[in-house]
Amino acid sequence: MMASRVGLALAVLLTCASSFAAGAPAPSCVNSRAELKARDLTDLFLKHKGELDLKSQVGCLKLESGVEVPAFLLELPAYESPYTIRMEAPLGIGTYLLPRIDMLDAQFNTLRSFGAEHLKHRGIEMSLDIFVNSPNASERYALIYADPQHLGEQDSKMVSQSKMLFVGTGFYIAGDDNTTTRHSASEGKLTVTLLGGKWDKAHGHH
Amino acid sequence: MYVRRWARTLQGVVETNVGMVCTRIGRQGEYNVSDLQRRLRSAAILSLATILSSCSTFPTQELNKEANQSLHVIAVAPVGMPDKPMVTIVNAAGNSFGLIGAAVEATRASNASNEAVTEFANAGLTYKTHFPSVIEQQLKAAGFEVQMLPGTRTGSDAGAFLKTLPGAPGADAILDIYVTYFGYVAASPKSPYRPAIHVEARLLDIKTQKVLFADQIYYNNFTPAAAKKAITLEPDPQAVFDDRAAMRAAPTDVVKWMRVAQTAVATELAKQLK
Predict the structure, then answer these.
(1) Which parts of chain B sit beneath pLDDT 70?
(2) What pLDDT does B270 receive?
């Protein structure tokens, strides 16, 4: 069981590695977080609905373990009052992203870290709320990458699926159990939302 | 006129899911339909009413634990529970055949629900008191001091958050919970039955009545497209009954898996607050 999971994780990593090679202009992997190009979170949230596509093209970080993963560095807004960063990773078809989020200070040291075990499994996504309170005011960046400890992990869901068939005189609703199986991958989509205080008003304008 | 519009909405829709059904029902208000048709449609979707109660997005709010470190004593308001356990077929064939089909399906669901009352009672599960006690246990296990407030929720209060909160002297916060689904569900007449419990919960500051936490916990979220944001717990793969006959033949197992589901939901709820 364990061996098969390790094998699966290896397979996913190899797939990711090959996608790095095959993908268009993938940046060379950096060894240091400071070398990643930071993106402004406020701009991402206000102008791009917080939508991120974590893939090899956005940046690549070589972890201490030697594993190379796509990584995103977000520059946090200056702390004024408590707010929340909500991360939502949709459960895609076949694969999904189980992100790890490291909260870094201005010198790129990790102050807090949220692994995939902190994520909540919701109907169609994995989600996490990170509360930024006054004791966390020195956090300047959020580093996002697929949690290496959970790469290749399998998510199996049984859902009831309706099927509506138009039969000329009306419609017929049928349904069946539908089991979907996904594996966590190093790439995937993510939506980052800012909540609380002034961000709630901004959210209303979206 | 309305027939053409109605047909247009269905045109090209060969396969959909509950989420799309949800959207479509929402749109029906735009069309010029007669009262009779509205009634027919209402009847046809009667059995789905509970399921589709989550059409509008539930405003989830995680508990900011760091900002609420003084949270030690939780008062639990009487838990809103359905009058009877439910035994539902999500995609019942009867719902596709107008008022008569819906009436047949409603009768089947009602009979199955009444049978479940007997099955639960025979196997020793008084679910209306058992579920709140499991919540109490799990909150205590998570380290909270718990006050179970007396009383019962009736009428509309049983299926919605309380409009007026009961007093809870000495508590830091009050937990307001109601259950929207409690029982078994099958995807279709030919699908197996699995246990399902759907819970909506919120925690309010006792002094300010500010919502500190609000979420849905769905054990067997059989409508993920409608309940997109619900914390989803997968049912135990062994908790499967091929059909109603299999359930009738094994009431002890029926209750056993309901107890497993209740513990899973209560544990998840406590985990959100811990």
Answers:
(1) 1-56, 93-97
(2) 97
Instruction: Check A164 against B222: CB less than 8 A apart.
Output: no
Taking contacts as CB-CB distances below 8 angstroms, the residues of chain B near A168 are: none
Give the contacts of A92 (CB within 8 A, at least 6 positions apart): A182, A188, A189
- If one counts every other C-beta atom within 10 angstroms of the C-beta of residue B129, the result is 10
Question: For strand A83-90 and strand A188-195, is the pairing parallel, antiparallel, or unpaired?
Answer: antiparallel
What are A32-78's pLDDT values in tens digits?
999 999 999 999 999 999 999 888 667 889 988 888 899 999 999 99
Query: Are residues A161 and B229, on separate chains, in Cβ contact within 8 Å?
Result: no
Long-range contacts of A64-70 (CB under 8 A, 24+ apart): A65/A148, A67/A13, A67/A148, A68/A17, A68/A20, A68/A29, A69/A16, A69/A145, A69/A146, A69/A148, A69/A186, A70/A16, A70/A145, A70/A146, A70/A186, A70/A187
Domains of chain B, CATH where assigned: 66-273 (3.40.50)
**Which one-letter DSSP state was computed for residue B165?**
P
Q: How far apart are CA A66 and CA A5, in angstroms?
A: 20
CB contact under 8 A, B222 and A159: yes
For residues A8 and B155, which has the higher predicted lDDT (pLDDT)? B155
ipTM of predicted assembly, 2 dp: 0.77
Residue A6 pLDDT > 50, yes or no? no
CB nearest A166 (choices: B10, B188, B234): B10
Spell out where chain A has E strands. Answer: 38-40, 51-54, 60-62, 68-75, 83-90, 95-97, 99-104, 110-114, 120-121, 125-132, 141-146, 154-166, 171-185, 188-195
Residues 6+ apart with CB under 8 A from B245: none
Amino acid A170: pLDDT: 64
Residue extents of the structural domains in chain A: 2-153+184-204
